[in-house]
Amino acid sequence: GAVGKIRTAGSSSDGTEDSDFSADLEHAEAPESAHRRSSTRLTRASLRLSQSSQASVFSSGRRITRSQQGATNTTAKKYPLRQSRSSGSDTEANGENADIKQGVDRDETPPRTPTGNAPSSESDIEVSSPSNDLEDERLAKELSLKEAAAHDLSHRPKRRRFHESYNFNMKCPTPGCNSLGHLTGRHERHFSISGCPLYHNLSADECKGKATTRDKQTEERTLSHRQDENRHSTRNQAPTDRQLRYKEKVTELRRKRNSGLNKEQKEKYMEHRQSHGTSREPLLENITSDYDLELFRKAQARASEDLEKLRLAGHVSEGSNMIKTIVFGRYELDTWYHSPYPEEYARLGRLYMCEFCLKYMKSQTILRRHLAKCVWKHPPGDEIYRKGNISVFEVDGKKNKIYCQNLCLLAKLFLDHKTLYYDVEPFLFYVMTEADNTGCHLVGYFSKEKNSFLNYNVSCILTMPQYMRQGYGKMLIDFSYLLSKVEEKVGSPERPLSDLGLISYRSYWKEVLLRYLNNFQGKEISIKEISQETAVNPVDIVSTLQSLQMLKYWKGKHLVLKRQDLIDDWKAKETKRGNGKTIDPTALKWTPPKGT
Known about the structure:
The chain is of the alpha+beta class. The protein contains 18 helices and 13 strands. The chain has helices spanning 2-9, 16-38, 44-78, 87-107, 122-126, 130-151, 204-227, 241-255, 263-276, 290-312, 343-346, 364-373, 401-412, 472-486, 499-519, 527-534, 538-547, 564-577, and strands at residues 325-328, 331-334, 350-353, 360-361, 382-387, 390-396, 427-436, 439-449, 456-458, 460-463, 492-493, 551-554, 557-560. The strands form four sheets. Strands 5-6-7-8-10 form a five-stranded antiparallel beta sheet, with helices on both faces. A four-stranded mixed beta sheet has the order 2-1-3-4. A hairpin with a 2-residue loop joins strand 1 and strand 2 (331-334). The longest helix has 35 residues, at 44-78.
């Protein structure tokens, strides 16, 4: 009974220490019980002495088991409940809590002797024989060693822990992949094609084996470099014998490769491509030498490891396909919304763009090489407006399809309601640029349908973030209405407008109306006349007058209230602003298209 009580009070998370402890107690008590049975004369004093010696053994054991309880509690804090692992671990965790609770409850009761009764007085516990004192010291020393072993968790198997930043709702985009394993062999899960073993026609175990081989090769290379460190002026010295042998080995490996694929291999490759398409990497065996293929695999694993580090650092947003930043000319812009770029580009988190042809690339190196070859310095199409360093180009979506698609994908990064990406042929794009000695830099654009039945003069409009709040948005709006005037039509932007677009249009309509009212000298005014002169839709004029509280209904008639305070405020702003950011109608060289 005493052994069972001690085991309950001193139980730990795995139970191994408790069994050893109880076994030691049984071995310690066995000689004493044998000695009592062999003695023929048992006095009351000897009986009390034997009870007190056993009680002292129990009390020393109880002190140590309390410290074991502290170790158990700290162990329970370090390892929380693992409810998502398996049912066995749940049972283990519940067992830990139950044992700890029983130990705490037992502390509230007075310590009991092995017979089950409480000691009658303090003298019963304090008195002990010299032989039992030695036994107590030996037992306490063994228990202290076991307590130290309980704190040492190195003998326990390591528990698999996934990185805390993993989102288990994310999945690998490769069809049929369960997101387990990683191309580098160093991670338990992956969420992108770059780390998918299945996409690279490998298994998770093969990736781990390749990682072990790469680590061994790295150690060997490091060791060989250390041996060569004693050489002075390495740059001017001849290659070592080891380097020459390695070079000959590589040359021999490349010479041994097959000249081409045989018929069976070609059929196998074609079957793999037809069955998986672009969802798997093409088979790469026998295309080049084994040495070069292994170099390519190492480069893939290294790039995947770098992407994983960027993802954990927050620079890469894999799984959500959200591009966070773009490098555009001399600017690095933070994006606002999702844009449907191809997955292999979207998962990177950062895109590099040519500001002239709008081609998007994966890295700074590719962009630098592209800029060395790119001959574009302005948008394609016809330049229909130029004043100072401001120009507007008319780009036909049918003639310059790729440019217009890239422009729409770029615009979607900063527009919420845009839905046009690839079907650009029915639209004309008017791109505003700012010129300097390096070229014409994109400021903003708007698109319009070639044949709009509702007389929409703008389908989509955008000012690049680096040029916002500088008057370019109103210039684009004014230019769109200038085109409507030349076409002798009344225009209106296509709905729904974005938040910033609605603010810009209301501000523009307000200025147009205040300018018209400031120059108007008559007593009766017509909404239709305002619309014909400004090319603004009558509905937009009425809504603007209502928002300015300038439209009143009095005695059965609609009256336009000419608020001089608003006109004076507008004059003051115009004087302060100057005439820098305005559209000059005389600088427009354009005839309306006849339709397609």
